[in-house]
Amino acid sequence: MGKLIKNHWARLIVLTAAVYQIFAAIHGFFWPKVFWDFATKNFDGAVKPVPILQIINLLFGIFILAWEWPLGIVTHSILHRSIEARLVIYPMSALVALLLYQGTNAGLYYLIGVGVYFWAFSEGEIVCPVPWTLPRRYMASKV
């Protein structure tokens, strides 16, 4: 049996969350609603008349989708290989997604992905420069 590569699993979870966040932001343009409107109406200005929260969700979703897929310009960068950067940015994206009513599932997926990335980080996993590959084992040559 193989060993579970947690950063690949977390990548799939976060890709799902990013796609969900993009669709939630687009849905929010047509039906603007803040998740916490049952408690207070103070956040309604973030979604209507100017869709600020929807635009922020859309930008976060596109950025994270490009980061996790990844695009060619991101592939060999330090940002792509950094689990620490993911552990900083994804909770912010989860917070933004959880504020929008349509994005609550995406926010929960981000939090699960952060937990799995933290698990991978605590076990010393690395993200390879080439996406979806395994780290190479360097065998000592026999002399």
Any chance you could write out the topology, listing elements then pairs?
Layout: H1 6-30, H2 52-68, H3 78-81, H4 83-99, H5 104-122
Helix pairs in contact: 1-2, 1-5, 2-4, 4-5
Describe the structure.
- The longest helix has 25 residues, at 6-30.
- The chain is elongated, with a radius of gyration of 18 Å.
- 57% of the residues lie in helices and 0% in strands.
- The model has no long low-confidence stretch (mean pLDDT 89).
- The protein has 143 residues and is mainly alpha-helical.
- It contains 5 helices and no strands.
- Helix 1 (6-30) packs antiparallel against helix 2 (52-68), helix 1 runs antiparallel to helix 5 (104-122) and helix 4 packs antiparallel against helix 5.
List its salient traits:
mainly alpha
- Unreliable runs, pLDDT <50, ≥5 residues? none
Structural class: mainly alpha
Global outline: elongated
What does the oligomeric state look like here?
single chain
What is the overall pLDDT average?
89
SSE string: HHHHH
Give helix % range. 55-70%
Query: Number of helix segments?
Result: 5
Range of strand content? under 5%
How would you characterize the largest beta sheet?
none
Radius of gyration: 18 Å
Short description:
The chain is an all-alpha fold. Helix content is 57%, strand content 0%. The chain is elongated and about 70 Å long.
